[in-house]
Amino acid sequence: MKNTIAVIALSSFLAVTACKKNEKVGPVEKTENKTTEGFVVDSVKVNDSTKITDSLKVSYTSKLLVFPSLKDKKLLDSIYFQNEKIKDFSKAGLQAYLDKEKNDYFNSIKNDNKDWVSDVTYAQNWYSSSHMNLMSNTNDYMHIQYVGSGYEGGAHDNYGFSERVFDLKNSKKLELKDITSMPKNKIEAILMKNIDKINSGTMDGDGEVKNSEMLLVEKIPASDNFYFDDKNLYFHYSPYEIAAFAAGDITIPVSWEDLKGTLNAEFKERMKIK
What we know:
Layout: E1 17-18, E2 29-36, E3 39-51, E4 56-66, H1 73-79, H2 91-112, H3 114-117, E5 124-138, E6 141-151, E7 157-167, E8 172-173, H4 184-193, E9 203-204, E10 207-208, E11 226-228, E12 232-237, E13 250-255, H5 265-270
Parallel strand pairs: 4-5
Antiparallel strand pairs: 1-7, 2-3, 3-4, 5-6, 6-7, 7-8, 9-10, 11-12, 12-13
């Protein structure tokens, strides 16, 4: 049976599998404006469902953040990188985009997949879900987490994460080279050393299982899927990206001390790293 979803990723769409409960849905919802120190953040959301057959219900949930004060088109294109069809970045424009995406998704299930939809003979709830979440905005570095998940038959749901940091002062997406000049192979050695610093909480009969015991790769890539706080740089990996499914998603910290002597001068000053 067909089982697909476009899972958000930084540079490509990454499909991964995981067990997850279907989400409960309701009417269209919009959040109110939030203003912190002059930085305005709003959002639009669609949360709807339809019955395809007597046995099949399909739900669609999506949330986009809205930034009324941001006008740089190149920056906005980067922020909405997973939604290339967006041309109007206003609240009304983004809401109209989500409404269209919802209708297109429902129609694709109804019209494009008639043969295998008719094979669904027992009650199922399929869904597509994607969310933009503002995690932080510190020193004009804005961290957004993108989460995508879905289920269209098969054994498990699919889900994945993407982390992006935007330099609002310079109107661009932050790259790893804007933070550190350390070669990637050296960062990857640190990632391997730090793999167990934040465990996933996976348990077996003998207690907690270390992330390092579930690795599927010999080298952990220093990917563009990163964010940071005042103590560490963090690399976030979706399920199956570097480890077995049981590990779930894994976050590996790299401390500023680990990167000492290689930090970009502007970044170090803005983040007040000693």
